[in-house]
Amino acid sequence: MARNRVGVIGFPVEHSLSPVMHNAAFAALCMDDWLYDCMAIPPDILRLGLREPMQHGYIGLNVTVPHKEAIMNFVRADETAKAIGAVNTVDFRTGIGTNTDAAGLLNDLAANGIEIADRRVLVLGAGGAARAAVYGLARAGADVAIVNRTMKRARRLVEQLRYTADIDGAQVMTLDEAATWGMSLIINCTSVGLHPHPTQSPWIFGVPFPAGVTVYDMVYRPANTALMQQCVAHGGRAVGGLGMLARQGAIAFELWTGVEPPIEVMLAALRGALEEKGEG
Fold first, then answer.
1. Rounded CA gap, 35 and 33, in Å?
2. What is the pLDDT of residues 195-239, one digit of tens each?
3. What does pTM read for this prediction?
4. Active site residue 68
5. Which of 68, 82, 152, 277 is an active site residue?
6. 172, 158 Cβ separation under 8 angstroms
7. Residues 120, 143: contact at Cβ < 8 Å?
């Protein structure tokens, strides 16, 4: 029986691939006394649901929707989590909650040779994933613009980051304006195109798609989204978001264990799981 347990909480959470990649890393490192599982916790019992794993010896947890913001009421959020406004990783030994999404994104961009410093980067979306992306990109020296279906929500994101992280300069645009902005990178932080709606794209029909740009789509189910196909059709390079999932998870893994996990093992486990589901 595993002496060291970690896991992920959300609602629903059964679809999570985090157990696959973490347990593959534990196996590769012969860390037989570690186990990663998942727990479905409804929002109305989040405090109790957080207390239960603590009392049963869990080292820490990952946190996914819809709990990332609400859980900040029950842990000590670090500066990164406060700035982004969400916690996705908790260490029960310290009681500290952090957010690994921005670092996971930046690490995967770097792993794919995508430069962002002093580059124009367009972020699609204005939810939690977009907030983490804009935070990370701005701190890394990118010139960031945001497009969202509701411009009011995008402006609210900019105001929040100005207040929580002293990030100034992010622009809000319409998609038509963005089409001629001259960005080198587009990052999709929306769920548009996610399985089971693979034909949908956040870049709506009728708006000219910029030629030769790089697209990074946080959606990884399916592996080749409609947005990525649009990008390639216009002479660009497209990268899916599976690497971000692995790399943000790797940061949590090292936080809990003190051991750097094998990223390639985690990625291979994720790809294998998606192929089994017919989504690879």
1. 7
2. 888 999 999 989 999 999 999 999 999 999 999 999 999 999 999
3. 0.96
4. yes
5. 68
6. yes
7. yes
